[in-house]
C-alpha cells in the first residue's frame, strides 16, 4: 500500500528529529565543561549540569529561563581542572558545551572564556539557541564581573582555582527572517522574450486636448475692441 504525499512528508520529518524530541514535551539536555591550553594535553569533557527543556511553543525568541541542575561531580571536576591547567597561565581557556542528541562531539556548540577571568567572577549565565525542531544550535557563556577591556588581572590577583558560579540558563527559540517582497516577473511574449515597456508620452501628447480648448476659446472670443476717445466725438459730428 502506497503512502500518500502528506504521510510520506511526515515520515521524513519524523526521521530528521532526534529520538529524544519525540518522547514527550520535556527534553533533558546535558552540559559539559573542560579547560584547555595549546601546550598541554586536551582534557576530556566533564559533567557540568543538566536542564529540562519545556515544550517548544513555550520558548520565547527573547529568552525563557529554565532550571539548571549542577552535576554532583562539579566540584571534583573543577579541582581536576586546576591540577591540569593553571588559570593564571596565558592562553588557558575554559569551555562549556551542550550535547546534541545523536551527534558527535565535533557537532556540539561550544562557548569559550579566558581561564584568568573565571576566578574573578561570582556568577555566570548560559544562553542556548534552539532550532525549530528543538536542537541546540549555539551556546553563549558569560561570567560577571569582567573588565570592559577583557584583559586578565595580574597573576597576584588571580586565584589558581576554578570557582563554582551561580549559573542562570536561558533558552531562545529560532526566529524566522521576514519573507522578501518579490517583484512581479516582467510580461513575456509567446516566444519567451520580454515585452518592451510602453514609451512614456510627452507633455503635448498628454495635455493636447486642454491646449486645443484654450486656443479655440481665444479664437472665438476675438480681439478686444479699442475704446473710443471722447474728445474726438464732437469733431467727428461736424
Your description of this structure?
The chain is built from five helices and nine strands; from the N terminus they run αββββαββαβββαα. The protein has 238 residues and is an alpha+beta fold. The strands form two sheets. Strands 4-2-1-5-6 form a five-stranded antiparallel β-sheet. Strand 7 (123-130) and strand 8 form a beta hairpin. The termini are far apart. Residues 1-24 have low confidence and may be disordered.
Features:
25% strand; 5 helices; 9 strands; 238 residues; five-stranded antiparallel beta sheet; disordered N terminus
Q: How is the secondary structure organized here?
A:
Elements: H1 5-16, E1 27-36, E2 46-53, E3 64-66, E4 68-70, H2 74-84, E5 93-98, E6 110-114, H3 115-118, E7 123-130, E8 136-144, E9 166-173, H4 203-221, H5 233-237
Parallel strand pairs: 7-9
Antiparallel strand pairs: 1-2, 1-5, 2-4, 3-9, 5-6, 7-8
